[in-house]
Specification:
single chain, 258 residues, Rossmann fold, 11 helices, 7 strands, 3-oxoadipate enol-lactonase, triacylglycerol lipase activity, EC 3.1.1.24, AB_hydrolase, hydrolase
Length: 258
């Protein structure tokens, strides 16, 4: 499948190291808004919308992790970026894992947040893809977002919950379903030992969408990877623990200890 020319926003000093941020399934690049002020003090921050999300074009049919990695390579090439620090949440983290295995020369450091190398529930992802293709992303917005934040945090931030549900609903139906297929088909466990980039794995202790054992598996499989567990935090830990995630990303990419 041909790479998609994804929509991207570039912020921060032109001569700073590049930090690429990849969004979660169903969200768009705005999910990183809480981290941008701190990150742009140190990095040239490149945020992009995964294909079929936000302002990025969609593709028809199922996609693979290689397709999503191809989109990132094409974006870096378009921006003239030879190497970047890479961080991603959920499917963004999965994309980062694939990129680090396939394109090691492009990845300076890797941060994988609330993600998995193998979800182990392909049937549920295939079911979700069928639902979205039949009824649209609006049909799954509420249950999906209910797992993104811990219940107390969601209760205290109803405006954020509404915005996140609208974000999921805005995702292209076919694009979202295609990405579900990529997750269903994915098994990156055999390749984890091949990742040479310094790797930080971030886990949300209360994440029901991709529970902490998935992050432990990645941290155990990637040589010398470090695991950071945040609590309270569910699937979008960067929204619930914005300062802690920003500090961890900065420390990791600058050679410190998160």
């Amino acid at each position: 499948m041909t790479a998609v020319e994804v929509h991207a926003v570039v912020e921060g000093p032109a001569d700073a190291p590049v930090l690429l941020l990849s969004n979660s399934l169903g969200s768009d690049l705005s999910m990183w808004d809480p981290q941008v002020p701190a990150l742009t003090e140190r990095f040239r921050v490149v945020r992009y919308d995964t294909r079929g999300h936000g302002r990025s074009p969609s593709s028809r049919g199922d996609v693979t992790m290689d397709d999503l990695a191809d989109d990132v390579v094409a974006l870096l090439d378009r921006l003239g970026v030879a190497q970047a620090h890479v961080a991603g949440v959920s499917i963004g983290g999965m994309t980062g894992l694939r990129l680090a295995v396939r394109e090691p020369q492009r990845v300076l450091t890797l941060a994988v947040l609330c993600s998995s190398a193998h979800t182990g529930n392909a049937a549920s992802w295939e079911d979700r893809a069928r639902t979205v293709r039949a009824e649209g992303t609006a049909a799954i917005a509420e249950p999906v977002v209910s797992r993104w934040l811990t219940p107390p945090y969601a209760a205290d931030h109803p405006d954020l919950v509404a915005r996140l549900q609208a974000m999921v609903t805005a995702a292209d139906d076919e694009g979202y379903a295609g990405c579900c297929a990529a997750i269903a088909q994915m098994d990156q466990r055999p390749d984890l030992h091949r990742i040479g980039a310094p790797t930080l794995v971030v886990s949300g202790a209360e994440d029901q969408a991709v529970p902490p054992e998935h992050q432990r598996l990645i941290a155990d499989g990637v040589p010398d990877a470090r695991l950071l567990t945040l609590s309270p935090a569910a699937h979008l830990a960067n929204l619930e623990q914005p300062a802690a995630v920003a500090e961890a990303l900065i420390a990791h990419a600058t050679g410190g200890t998160p």
